[in-house]
Amino acid sequence: MNKIKKGDIVGRISYNKDIIFIVEDIRDKSNVILKGAFERIIADSDINDLELMDQREMSLKEKVKEFKLKRQENRIDGNKVTGKILHLDGDKRYSEKSIKYYQRMGVNAVVKNISENRQPRVVYNLLKMYKPDILVITGHDGMIRKEYGYYDIYNYRNSRHFIATVKEARRYEKDMNTDLAIFAGACQSYFEAIMEAGANFASSPARILIDILDPLIIAKKIAITDNLEYIRIEDIENELRDGKRGVGGTGARRKKKIKSKFISNL
What angle do CA 30, 36, 41 make, to 5 degrees? Predict the structure, then answer.
């Protein structure tokens, strides 16, 4: 009898356990909802196709993530003010990690754990409340059928919510006359539609998995670089796990400013 339960760390046998998942929910005693432990993907599986993973594999992945994070740690010039980030994340565990990651990277960020389907309803008011320079919209996503349906919005688990959230954010920008930089998407997201909705950067051009740190790296890069410059995906791609296959975009104005008597810390 399969003793897998909610919260277990598992791999899919039929996929050679290529992705480490956490069991999010068990439905009808056999259908299991999974979320990536290190990638922003959501999937389902038959419970009999799952196998418990060795905790040592998780620990090894965590060490790799820690090494990558150390490369992103930053010392901010005391005469500069970094851009302010508002990050909406559909995953509670990732939200908590993101707060720590932003702190270690030395940038000013507010992180809110909000499910993907609620993000379009709350983003406008959150933007009015926090007045960020940069908005990150993410969580989990995934294609239902990978062989086809690249341009079918209903073949994506959460892309439609990311698209709607970007559109609401651009409505706020127009109403408030701001210059907002936006990253949106997760694993295998509908890149073209998210970009058309108004994102500066989005995932995933090649419909591949993206790393938990990828959206944070992009937000940090925009936040800490002088606002007289323009940042392109080519300026960031070498810092991302899979470069331009995982994330693409048209670019964004950078948000770091020189301190003056009229500017205070955010």
Answer: 95
How crowded is residue 5: how many other Cβ atoms within 10 Å of its Cβ? 11
Q: What is the enclosing helix (H) or strand (E) of 161?
A: helix 159-176
Say if residue 191 is exposed, middle or buried (CB neighbours under 10 Å; 0-12, 13-18, 19+): buried
pTM value is: 0.89
At 174, give phi and psi (nearest 5°).
-65, -45
Q: Supply the DSSP string of 185-246, one letter for each residue.
A: --TT--HHHHHHHT-SEES-TT----BTTHHHHHHHHHHHSBTTSEE-GGGTGGGSTTGGGT
How does DSSP classify residue 54? P
State how beta strands 257-258 and 248-249 pair: unpaired
Which tokens belong to 111?
């992180």
pLDDT bin (cut points 50, 70, 90) of residue 265 is very low
Whether a cis peptide bond, with omega within 30° of 0, leads into 204 is yes
Question: In angstroms, rounded to a whole number, what is the distance separating the alpha carbons of residues 202 and 191?
Answer: 6
- ∠ CA 64-65-66, nearest 5°, is 90
How far apart are the C-alpha atoms of 36 and 40, rounded to whole Å?
A: 6
Examine the pLDDT at 56 and tell me if it is beyond 90.
no
Residue 145 DSSP SS3? coil
170 membership: H or E segment, kind and range: helix 159-176
In sign, the C-alpha dihedral spanning 147, 46, 114, 211 is: negative
